[in-house]
Amino acid sequence: MKKGLFTGNEIVVKAAIQAGAQLMFGYPITPSTEILESFAEEAVSHPELRFIQTEDEISAGFGVIGAVLGGKKAFTATAGPGTVLMQDAISMAEAMRLPFVGIITQRGGPSTGTVIYSQQEVTLTCFGGNTEGLRFVYSPSNLQDVYDLTIAAFNSAWQYRFPAFLLTDGYLAKAKGEVRLHQPGYLASTKEILGKEETIVNIRNTYSTEEELFAVLKKNLADYQKIAKRVSRYRIYQKKRIDSLIFAHGSVASACLAACEAKDDLALFQPLTLRPFPRQAAKHWAKKAKKIFIVESSAGQFARLVKEALSGLPLNMIECQRPALGITPKEVLEWVR
Amino acid sequence: MKREHLSLKILLAGEGGQGIQAMAQILQAAAYQTGFQTLYIPNYGVEQRGGVSLAYLQISTLPIPYPKFKTADILVLMCERAIPRVKPYQNSQTQVINGAFFLNTPAQHNLSPKTHNMLILGILSVLLPIDSEVIRQTIKKRFQKAPVLLLNQNEQAFLLGRGLGLRLPQDAQRLKKIPVDDHRKWPDHISLSKKDPKIIHTIIRRYCKSCGTCIARCPTKALHFSKTLTGIYGTPIVEVEIKKCIGCKMCETVCPDTAISVKKEEPLAGSPQKS
Amino acid sequence: MIPKCYKKESLPHLFCPGCGYGVILKSLGFTIDQLKIAHQTVLGLDIGCALLAWNLFNVDTIQTHHGRTIPVMAGLKLAKPKAIALALVGDGGAYAIGLQSLLHSAHRNDPITVIVVNNSLYAMTGGQMAPTTLEGEITTTTPLGRDCQKTGLPFLGPETVIPLTNQFAYIARVSIRNPFVLEETFKKAILNQMKGKGFSLVEVLSVCPTNWKTDAEKTFQFLKEMEDYYRLGEIKKPKEEA
Description:
- The complex is a heterotrimer of chains A (337), B (275) and C (242).
- Chain A is α/β, with parallel strands linked by helices and 337 residues long.
- Chain A has 2 domains: 2-230, Thiamin diphosphate (ThDP)-binding fold, Pyr/PP domains (Rossmann fold), CATH 3.40.50.970; 233-336, Rossmann fold (3-Layer(aba) Sandwich).
- Chain A contains 12 helices and 15 strands.
- Chain A has helices at 8-18, 33-45, 57-69, 80-95, 122-127, 143-160, 170-174, 210-231, 250-261, 279-286, 301-310, 329-336, and strands at 2-7, 23-26, 50-53, 74-78, 101-106, 136-138, 164-169, 176-181, 202-203, 234-238, 244-247, 266-271, 273-275, 291-296, 317-321.
- In chain A, the strands form 3 sheets. In chain A, strands 3-2-4-5-7-6-13 form a 7-stranded mixed β-sheet, with helices on both faces. In chain A, strands 10-12-11-14-15 form a 5-stranded mixed β-sheet, sandwiched between helices. In chain A, strands 1-8 form a two-stranded antiparallel ribbon.
- The mean pLDDT of chain A is 96.
- In chain B, 27% of the residues lie in helices and 24% in strands.
- Mean pLDDT of chain B is 89; it is low at 171-176.
- Chain B is elongated, with a radius of gyration of 22 Å.
- Chain B is built from 8 helices and 10 strands.
- Chain B has helices spanning 20-34, 83-86, 105-108, 116-125, 132-142, 148-167, 213-217, 250-254; strands at residues 7-16, 37-44, 50-60, 74-77, 95-98, 189-192, 198-203, 223-230, 236-240, 260-265.
- Chain B has 275 residues and is α+β, with helices and mostly antiparallel strands.
- In chain B, helix 1 (20-34) crosses helix 5 (132-142).
- In chain B, the strands form 3 sheets. In chain B, strands 2-3-1-4-5 form a 5-stranded mixed β-sheet. In chain B, strands 6-7-10 form a 3-stranded antiparallel β-sheet.
- Chain C is α/β, with parallel strands linked by helices and 242 residues long.
- Chain C has helices spanning 20-35, 69-79, 91-95, 99-107, 148-151, 157-161, 179-194, 209-212, 216-229, and strands spanning 41-45, 60-63, 84-90, 113-118, 121-122, 128-129, 170-175, 200-205, 233-236.
- Chain C has a 7-stranded mixed β-sheet with strand order 2-1-3-4-8-7-9, with helices on both faces.
- In chain C, helix 1 crosses helix 7.
- The longest helix of chain C is centred in the N-terminal third of the chain and has 16 residues, at 20-35.
- Chain C starts with 19 loop residues before the first helix and ends in a 6-residue tail after the last strand.
- Chains A and C meet through helix 3, helix 4 and strand 9 of A and strand 2, helix 2 and helix 4 of C.
- Strand 9 of chain A pairs parallel with strand 2 of chain C, so a sheet runs across the interface.
């Protein structure tokens, strides 16, 4: 099997191409820019690939929509203020059940913040736009995850028709390490929505009455609910016993994992999907712990998801919040002492 | 004077362009002036004309917390296409005024079709504890900037409607008794020329929205509004004076609603051509 | 007199009495009939009155977000080059919120056809000022008439786009006064795409009696005022093959 040293951004591109992506639209923004550049490079030697640098993230998002409507796997990548602009297109993709795929490399916010790192785009990626958050959000915690979950995002988007995101961060984007490029066992097939000569399709996203929209939403919510169990994923790391259970996602989860390896009574519950959140599993493992720690590089965006999932359980919860700051294994250990 | 408790939920339903919101606003102003608590909310979709237009009006002696309601005490229907939308608001107690029934009444009394809403307001006023003079004054104030003719006609229509309302039986009408005039079954209005060239001038009644574009662009001024037939919005359709028609098809070309079709048979070569 | 590619069950359509879209869509329909492209055409509809055409045609249609029709159609064309990508956009979608995308699409020579309907105001939302509102024109956000000193001169869309285009673009402005010219111009614009040349833009001077609050006569009088300001004709044509 092919393997080598890659950065997170490079490996996203390898995974996307492996997953069948042919078109990428994007506007440069740190720390996602190398994704655009890598794809543009790949397009040089692969004529079926096409990279379009658009005038802004709004156009990039809507370009992806146009491309998937035409039946081709397409994606975009952005960060920070770009993620904010992207919500216009993502809202449309959510409403119209389009297989939109986006890579979000979180950076410090709000506003221009830093170009480096954070976990502050959780709410935006999960629930941004004027929507109910019917999206798939994958949170990779290491470079191998970046590869695997990018492919998973394309598959879920095309199989189930909800927008899907790889919610990574600036550290993973730039970190370089070994990744195994395995062939995916399953690739979702594509389907043209518009432009098929044999059929006529009239699609709208505007409705005249509250009742008309409600009927559409009811169906989409029911579909999402049904699919949730199939899509949601998590990891559990338990050494010996569970006195304390940490909830963490993304690269912070890797730091927590290292911390857990140093102690016998510390376990880690790592959601691999923030949407749909693996609720039942979370509840199941939370019940075994005496104390719960929620660790994130944000002021509570992830904690909100955890608390919602665990609501109803009597819990001893401590939130460890370091918005826009990286968290090392040593710092995790200091917290949980 | 101690007033008995009163709470009225009035739903006005029709299409954009029928002046439903004006009706509700006038009533609200009159009710408020009379000393009632009132709350009004419009409800419509994206179209400026046609499409859904609803007005929820509540009149009460007590404060009103929420602008929408589930069941109407009085339901005012302004066109038949609104019926399916408002069925859920009706129960066995709801009083129904079928405004659609009176769509041609203004024309019959030489009043502009634009006054239809004021006519129905007149009928509705019979059911309300509001002095009709207060309503009439509110109408005058509302349309004071309108051309004098329209202002007078609006007042006349209101009074005419009130007269009609006083003569209507007080027991409630039921929605299922109202015959539905399916516009899809309306026959086309066809005019044939009696002399050469043979022209067949067809107006598709259910498409005509009374915009008047064809009348403005006809080179021989052969088109005018009908005094009897109405189109999809209850407004007069166009009719042709076939004698004046030269079969140029200008009307067909400029009609935004593809409501006109002109077929002209060219006269045989050698035969005299009539203008 | 009804285009073959119209969906007859959708008539009478959702547009107001006297709406310019009635004439524009009819002409577009006849053009699609003539070119026999109903099955390959995809018509993108911007937010605004254009969206009311969503079920009018037996042609693929899609409502997009406001000002985003052009990038959607550009993306679609890339994924499906055989499709004939049309974008139907109002003056707001083209020259305000969507201007950025219009300029860049023209600049890239995206092989799509954009039809801009200019009725000098934002009709669906009730008649507010648009970039194309004439000096002194009364709208709901310019109750005393547009003051061009404060809001700029009425926007010349095609003229603004042309300097960014290359030799393959087709750019024209027409008026609904003559539906035959509309048909001919739409045909040339769409052929520019079909022949693989590139970007085409047709601005149509249109009318809105509902928000202008005019009867038929006054409607066409105001259209004349627009025609006096906005130059009609084929403003840019692609160079013929050598």
